[in-house]
Design a protein that fits this description.
- This protein has 130 residues and is an all-beta fold.
- 0% of the residues lie in helices and 48% in strands.
- The chain is built from no helices and twelve strands.
- Strands 2, 4, 5, 6, 9, 10, 11 and 12 form an eight-stranded mixed sheet that branches.
- Strand 7 and strand 8 form a beta hairpin.
C-alpha cells in the first residue's frame, strides 16, 4: 500500500522542541519532493516547509524560519521536521506529503492520494501550551 505516515507530535511547553517524522511506504522517495503543511482548527491549510528531490532545495514559511528545519533520509525513506523554539501559535495538526518532483503540490491537508500523484498522511497533532 502506498502511503506516508507521520509521527512525533505531542504536547510541549512554549520554547520546547519536537521532531516529526514522515515514513513513506510502498514507493521509493528518491524522485519525490516532500514537505509539511499544518492546519489549526478553523484555519486554512498552510505550508510549513518543503524539500526538493535534492536535499539542498528547501523552502520555509516566514513564521518558522530559523526555528524549524526540514530534512530527509532517502536511505530510510523518511523525512523529518525538527521544530525548535515552539510557540502557542504553532499548535496545529501537521501533515506530511510527497509529490513527484516535477509537480507543484496543491495544498489540501487531507489524507490519502491525490489527482497529482501526491500522497498525504493522516496528520499528527502538535500542541504548544504551558
Amino acid at each position: 500500500q502506498v502511503q506516508v505516515e507521520e509521527s512525533g507530535g505531542g504536547l510541549v511547553q512554549p520554547g520546547g522542541s519536537l521532531r516529526l517524522s514522515c515514513v513513506a511506504s510502498g514507493f521509493i522517495l528518491d524522485n519525490y519532493a516532500m514537505g509539511w503543511y499544518r492546519q489549526a482548527p478553523g484555519e486554512k491549510c498552510e505550508m510549513v516547509a518543503t524539500i526538493g528531490k535534492n536535499i539542498d532545495v528547501t523552502n520555509y514559511a516566514d513564521s518558522v524560519k530559523g526555528r524549524f528545519t526540514i530534512s530527509r533520509d532517502n536511505a530510510k525513506n523518511t523525512g523529518y521536521l525538527q521544530m525548535n523554539g515552539l510557540k502557542p501559535e504553532d499548535t496545529a495538526t501537521y501533515y506530511c506529503y510527497t509529490v513527484p518532483h516535477w509537480i507543484a503540490v496543491q495544498p489540501r491537508c487531507s489524507p490519502g492520494p491525490g489527482s497529482d500523484m501526491d500522497i498525504w498522511g493522516k496528520g499528527t497533532l502538535v500542541t504548544i501550551s504551558s
